[in-house]
Amino acid sequence: HWYELRACAYYGEFEKPKIIFPDIATEARFVLDRNNQYCDTTVFLIPIDDLIMLALLNSSPLLELYKILSPQVQGGFLRYKRQYVSQLPIPNATKKDKTALERLAQKCLAKRGIDCQAEEDEINAVAARLYGL
Fold this sequence. Notes:
The protein has 6 helices and 6 strands, in the order H-E-E-E-E-H-H-E-E-H-H-H. It is of the alpha+beta class. The strands form 2 sheets. A 3-stranded antiparallel β-sheet has the order 3-1-4, with no helix packed on it. Strands 2-6-5 form a 3-stranded antiparallel β-sheet, with no helix packed on it. It is globular.
């Protein structure tokens, strides 16, 4: 229950849509929470409802950059801490690219992340172009 959490100044952010992600993972695992879930100390949140940001954060090009920013721990796991995630650059995108990323992310969400390889490949292609790769 929410009252089992330690006192914090941002309780209100749990009751809004947000992007959540685990502290330790081998790859990007950013998830959009529109169900007002409460997270504990092993999960972090970005208080926005943004499918474009979600798509970019989960893209392969950003993962490769993140591997440079984040320390790796045993087993090749990455630390997804605020101090590292906040360094990720979010590129300016055209309206066309934003629309494409949003549409593709929405398709993946509708499929609950199952059998989304085609959409993920398209997201990665758009992200690579936006990052000049």
